[in-house]
Design goal:
Layout (H helix, E strand, L loop, with lengths): L5 H18 L21 H9 L8 H8 L5 E5 L3 H18 L4 E2 L8 E2 L3 E2 L8 E4 L3 H6 L4 H13 L2 E2 L7 H6 L6 E4 L6 H10 L10 E5 L3 H14 L4 E4 L9 E4 L6 E5 L1 E7 L14 H4 L2 H21 E11 L8 H11 L3 E3 L12 E2 L40 H4 L5 E3 L1 H4 L4 E8 L15 E2 L25 E2 L8 H8 L10 E3 L8 E4 L2 H10 L5 E4 L1 E6 L9 E3 L1 H7 L8 E3 L2 H9 L14 H8 L4 E8 L6 E8 L4 E3 L3 H10 L55
Parallel strand pairs: 7-8, 7-12, 8-9, 12-13, 25-26
Antiparallel strand pairs: 1-5, 1-6, 2-3, 4-5, 9-22, 10-11, 11-18, 13-17, 14-17, 15-16, 16-17, 19-20, 20-21, 21-23, 23-24, 26-27, 27-28
Bound molecules: S-adenosylmethionine.
S-adenosylmethionine binds next to helix 8 and helix 11.
Length: 712
Amino acid sequence: MGRKNRNVNKFAQRKREKKEQERNPKEKPAGDTRKHYEDIVRENAAFEEYYKTQKVCPEEEWPAFLSALKENLPTTFRITGSKCEADALMNIVKSKYFSELLNVRLQVEGKEEGEEIKPFNLPWYPGGLAWQLRLSRMDIRRNETLYRLHNFLVAETAAGGVSRQETVSMIPPVVLDVKPHHKVLDMCAAPGSKTAQLIEFLHAEEDKMPTGFVMANDVDNSRCYMLVHQAKRLNSPCILITNHDSAVMPSITVTDEQNPGSTKQLKFDRILCDVPCSGDATLRKNPDIWLKWSTGNGNNLHGIQYRVLRRGCELLALGGRLVYSTCSFNPIENEAVVHRLLQDAGESVKLVDVTDMLPGLKHHKGMTYWKPASKDMVFYENFEEVPEKWQTVVRPQMFPPKPEDLPKYNLDRCIRILPHHQDTGGFFVAVFEKVSPLPWEKDQKETTEVAEKPTEEKKEPPKKRRRLGGYKEDPFVFFSGDTEDVFPSIKEYYDLNAEFDSKCLLTRCYVGKKKNIYLVSPLVKDVVQKNEANIKIINTGVKTFVRCDNKNMMCPFRLSQEGLASIVPFVGAKRRVRILKEDLILVLQNDNPSKPPELHRFTEHTQQLVKDLATGSCILEFQDTESSLQLTLVGWRGVHSLRAYTATSDTVHYLRLLGADFSKYDVNKFKKDAPENEDESEAKPEAEAMEVTEPSAEQNGSKEGEVQSTSS
Ligand SMILES: C[S@@+](CC[C@H](N)C(=O)[O-])C[C@H]1O[C@@H](n2cnc3c(N)ncnc32)[C@H](O)[C@@H]1O
């Protein structure tokens, strides 16, 4: 989908360099001047002086604060996916992988006997789905006793069953309180770990397409493709990825539901403003910050952080909620930005106390006093003290409120998390609610009721524009309706019911054979159609149908696993197979795509179901009789065979959930003859390549060469 972006090659390059370095450990990759993390001296006198002066923590906590900062981060992860899959995976994690931790002891300084490693369930994470282990990623990777746990984390991250995310980074989406009907904007979204959570919360009501959507934006074009990668894992038709400077994010136009002939400006119910920051609270994860830390970083970012927050407040609906967050300790990037906004916004925006949404989370309240400093480490009580040469850097708006004004702002409602509180990175979160229009919005009309020009269903395609500093995206071409050339055959073959809106399907080309067909929600479609000319849309839509010209299938499109959950409610009984556990295991354990299991190997039950099923793409549905586990997979009914249409990572995930044998994928890389283990797949766009092959000629009972298939 879309154009390949050059950054993908950067990832590939790094991967090649890493492999090369493993082969020749003495040689550094060309041009790499970075220090190895373990060689970095974790000290910086200016950092210590700055934060001691700011009183970022009580004096008695300082040694604990500093020593926690010098340690590697513990491993944390969340279980994701549908409720029943998440429940099943959680049981497996607890019973199988956590029990392996009993065999490992943690060496603690000053103690002779190693300590037991008890996994810690984050009490404030909804559904108890998040875990923290007292082991760094390196500890897990290097310990043979834990190779299964390591394999589990790598494989489930690839399959989307697990998301490895730092504890504190999980907080902003939780306190944003996203519901399925919310229109959500993630202003600075890449690489997208928080976007993923926002989408998970949006889809909280399973089996129902949310009426809201998530617009994930980032100014960096190549980082937008990290968001595309994240979105692909989540299979949501309710996400739109855009590429703008969010400080000047254009307004979005949508159809006015009260008056469908008109349009209005969209205001978002929820906005995440996870701004670019100095990142000094991520020192545990990024030790190289010890080498380059300076007060200048925070001062330089204050302006853009404020402008992004201010634009966020403008785009926020009345009664809506906005979360401002950074991974910085610096009050100049945190409370000073919040205070500046509250000063400008007057009574229209207020800080909300969300501590009741975070039970058990240790934190400090927001600071109410701080001292801006210039790069030469001189601290100032007020702007009048700032020498002229620093006045463009240390700005008047960076100073704290006067003591008598403090009650107006409630800065103590901000949340500060320090590394020693619960062995995490540091973080800052402030939650705003908009109670009335901003002072400068008062004269503007809430809704711009513009009479919509009647549009023809099929417009002449606009010429594609080349974008400066970015990539030309393929167009978003929506189906005109049920008469769209390929639709009647899809509708007939999959027995789609009348509720399915074919106008929500789209392709990424105007001319030529349709290849992949994507699905979006009605609201996302409206946003795309009304704004395509003004906003840079990088990606939207979940791949639902894939061209598969195969003489054994009456329809030229097969189903795609990515879009299956969205289309399933509309598919009729004639393309569904209620498969038994042993049969599902049989198809999943087959790893030779050109030799799928023949029908006679299945139970009589499944053979009977498949007997009258026309060959081609179908849905395999499994309902466990002993638990609430339900699985829905894309299958293929060949002339003499039945197979599942899953990527390897998904296959392992399903076999794990079914309690079946997947040992051939669970390799102990410490054993001499083990095949070289793939790199960890987290945040690596190139790892998304599907290992799915089209049904072969043999499998469909036709002679080699007769199948004309198009790869996905
Ligand atoms: C702290 S990171 C966001 C992390 C992300 N929310 C997550 O959880 O994965 C900040 C992001 O802001 C982006 N950014 C920087 N300036 C921006 C701007 N003016 N508008 C939009 N995005 C911006 C950067 O490219 C970067 O990806």
